[in-house]
Structures are given as C-alpha cells and as structure tokens.
Amino acid sequence: MSLRQTLLSIDWPTGYRKVIIDEVDSTMKEARRRQQYINQPTWILAKNQTKAHGRRGRVWSNPNGNFSATLALKLSEDPANLALRSFVTALALFDTLAYITKASKLLSLKWPNDVLMEDKKVAGILLESFGSGKITDFLLIGVGANLVPLPEGIEPSFGGMVRPTSLSDFGFKINPEDFLVYLAANFDYWEKQLRSSGFSELRKVWLSRAIKIGEMITVRTGLDLYEGIFDTIDDSGNLVLKMDCGIKVIPAGDVYF
Hints:
The chain is built from five helices and twelve strands. The chain is of the alpha+beta class. The protein has two domains: 207 residues, BirA Bifunctional Protein, domain 2 (2-Layer Sandwich); 41 residues, Roll (SH3 type barrels), CATH 2.30.30. It is globular, with a radius of gyration of 18 Å.
C-alpha cells in the first residue's frame, strides 16, 4: 500500500474542522480573522503562505509544497497550561515524521518547540494566545514543516547552531494535505492523553525523544545567556538547567548547542 493510500485511510479526528486555502498571508493571521466564527477545533492549511513567520518574528521559508497550518482552539484555561500544547504538538509532529520516514532514530525534539532530523531543523511550532484576565479563551498553534527542498541561502536557526533541512533532502515525498491528516490524528491522540492523564506521561515520552539531555547547552532569554547542563524539563515544561551556581528553571528561551 502506498503512503498516500495509507494516510487517506486514517480517519480525520472527530470534532475537528479542516479549512484548506490556496493562498494566504499567514495561517495565524487567517485564524485570528476567523476567530468569531470558530466554534470547534479548526485546522487551517494554506497551500501557499506569503508572510510566514516563526518565534520572535523570525521568517519561515515557505516554498510551494511546504506545510504551513494553524490549529485554532477555543478553550478556557490558565495561561500556565498553554505551553503544554507545544509538547502535545511536538509529539504529534515526531510521530507523523516517524511514520512517513520509518526512521524515528533520525528524529529528535529540541526544547521548546522544534523537531530535528539528523540534528537539523525540519519542523517548528509557534503558540499565540488571546484572552482577558487570567483566563485564555483562544489558542493558536502554528506548525511549519519542511517537506520540499528549501531555497538556497536560507540562514541557519539560532545563530548558525541549527541548520534547516527538509524531508525531500532524505528522499521522502508527501503533499501538505496528506501530512495534515496524520498530524491532526496524532495531535488528537496526544491532546486526549494530556486531558485524561495530565502532563506526566507526555513529559516522559518527550524526554525520551529530546536532544542534548545531560549535555552542556546555552539558553538565551531576552538579553541574558545561561550556560549549563540540560538536566530535564519540569512538570510545567520549563527547562531545568544545572549551572555552576545552582539550578536555573527557564520557562522560555532559545537553546544553543
């Protein structure tokens, strides 16, 4: 059975809506424009995205055939729980890529929200939330995955520490629509695990797939740099760094190897 036949045999997750657009500036912006009309979890996939971006406004290269989508969720939660959806999405991406490539040993997860293939960035995640007071009522999860060859001259991420790659570089081919089917099914699985069992089990699986655990890393948070041993992530998904001066718990930042 071909990959396409296998993917299309997977049921689209119950309760999720799918919107496919030929071209848009940004799926994140499109989700915000549709916010008042979204009443169930909705995946928005763009065949062509003209102004894609990642964390901290970084440009995300989006050649024709690449995967760019946003999952819009209406929910009512403490913002402290929102970062956990980054781990849900990372595990879903890992499982999707592992299925397509049948080579999970090539894959690893980079805190807080990247998926690597042979230590090169193949996919990234961006979270944005909206709400009032202490409760968030709208969460956007942007996902970009490099399915096709990238244009020449693309700069490495994180100051040259992590170079980009694509599935095509390893000889794998899949179109964005089929990729979305499996990603949506995997996200639904891990989201249900989070809701039924909490973060503890997801944390164990994420750590088993993470890169650089027990090794020296540097973490940038704003203008500050911290160097130490990547010990673990805690029950809130924060990075725990062992430094000469003691333990540093970091909720958000960029990791350099």
